[in-house]
């Protein structure tokens, strides 16, 4: 009888009008409601909820009106519909979306407010597409420039990634769509990602690799998280006692859902006991060939049910997973005040364009080569395959079906109406298919000759090249094979520069590349993958309509061995196929370059502007601080050039004499300031003194050392304007 009333109550709750429903929500504590729902579910219904029913959904409970959960990639836009049980696209005609710039570009804006706009807009699109869980953002640390998936992440610095990821998550979730932060954790390369066992010290784990995830959970309040493919200390990350049970769920009190990466589950008992909540993507024999539902063979399906029935695993273990899933549902599908979402509107395109223009990084600008005046009647040779190649296509699971993608060439043609634009491909990359790159159908020499002819005729040359989204480039499932530009671009660039020294490079990539031709070109800008508004954003910067203000979220090394992961040899990267040891430890990215005095090609935090800035009067509010204090660092920042622009003031702190190994300095604060010409502002950046602690392996906790610290203030990690000494008492 009691159960009957509960069913009636649940029926009423799930089917009430919005107003009464939200009153009801307010009245009943949702956790109690979750308990009452759990008590209504059969063991089988509960087990069904913890694994997939299709490539991108997990079941609800139909007889009770509990909805299914629908998930979708990815970090840069909502992916096109995929078939129920195959990886092919479903060919719907209503699933084209706005493609936003890749997360490397978002990180390069150093603008958390823009990250909030990005998250909110993509969340709206996900909601309109009826998605409940958005599989992103990705925040794995940029450890090596060879990682095929760096373009999906937020760079090499844990502080920057933390600051940028939190507003993204909050923005997405305002739409009643869960962000699924990925890939937890140490999936910092694609080679052998499905099996490699990563060994890393506790210090590097806590200081470098965990912080952005911790911020995502504790500050961003992410409702779900994706377990990575790889292993950590001998256990797969998707069911890892230390990472999931201890750190995530116990220490950080994560109350959301752990979802596997697709096919990252390997064992029923471990999946059940070591923190996994929903199993997705495990290979099945397909619905067409199996007699029953192939998803019943997942590790958390029939094999789990069997262990529960024979008492080897307690039902409370299952109930905890179901409780988390229902909680996610109350935040998404069963939330009473869920907005409706919007898609492909001008506001979203505007956000995409703004992130693009703010994220483009001006790396070199000899003789003020950029901006190129759009009013002049000149001939511009636009050379390079990336001038026309769609970059929302390819790259793996982040691939998008963009409603529009303005190519660089199109954007340049639109903006440079007075100029004579000629285009030559210059090189061809060849199609990518089934994880292989096939030879190009074009003759390389003919393409090169055409480009040289075009360059000779032109007043200026814009070379739009870089990497692309094919296998072994910026693409999931494989790593790059060298730091060099592929497809003969280095040689082509040298030859172009000889026939026309008025040459600038627009680098389209999500990774650092070597630039042996750097001295022979006048300008270089790092233009990432910019999505729907690519050509517009590039033309905004090229023409000077917008002043560049992006800063590199990772170091460009001069050569591969200058990068710490590579310096330590094969066992450090890529490992021996079974194990990998992160010998670079805490010295990732600029931390390594700074500490070992290895000059990078372009440093973390670096980026030029069309105006100039002056930082002065750097001060701290006090000289001595205790561990509960806040350190206020202030300075004047002045626009000393002729046009308005934005600068990113960066505060790094280091401890010269330390009881442990330390990086020379680490980013602890930044602030992006907009200044009109001649304007001067005084800004303050506040840092918790406790954030200067190091992770002490001996006590498994943070230790704040007493003594002197140096505060470094500048506009790049290798451009420090002033230093101030402070003391922690
Ligand atoms: C990727 C994830 C992605 C998932 C679903 C996996 O291969 O690693 O990032 O969300 O596929 O497409």
Question: How does this model look, in words?
Answer:
The protein is of the alpha/beta class and 729 residues long. The chain folds into five domains: 1-35; 41-331, Glycoside hydrolase, family 3, N-terminal domain (TIM Barrel); 360-554, Rossmann fold; 555-609, no CATH class; 611-728, Sandwich (Immunoglobulin-like), CATH 2.60.40.10. Helices cover 28% and strands 20% of the residues. The protein contains 20 helices and 28 strands. The strands form seven sheets. Strands 1-2-3-4-6-9 form a six-stranded mixed β-sheet. A six-stranded mixed β-sheet has the order 10-17-16-15-11-12, with helices on both faces. Helix 14 (346-359) packs across helix 18. The chain is globular. Residues 23-27 have low confidence and may be disordered. Beta-D-glucopyranose binds at residues 73-74, 135, 182, 261-262, 397.
**Secondary structure tally: strands:** 28
Q: What does the largest sheet look like?
A: 6 strands, mixed
Strand order of the largest sheet: 1-2-3-4-6-9
State the separation between the terminal residues, measured CA to CA. 66 Å
The coarse silhouette is globular
* Fraction in beta strands: 15-25%
By secondary-structure content and strand pairing, the structural class works out as alpha/beta
Please, how many helices? 20
Bound molecules: beta-D-glucopyranose
Low-confidence segments: 23-27
- The whole-angstrom Rg is 26 Å
- The CATH class of the largest domain, by name, is Alpha Beta
CATH superfamily annotation of the largest domain: Glycoside hydrolase, family 3, N-terminal domain
Oligomeric assembly: single chain
Number of domains: 5
* CATH fold category name of the largest domain: TIM Barrel
Helix fraction by DSSP (H/I, runs of at least 4): 25-40%
- The CATH architecture of the largest domain would be Alpha-Beta Barrel
- The mean pLDDT is 95
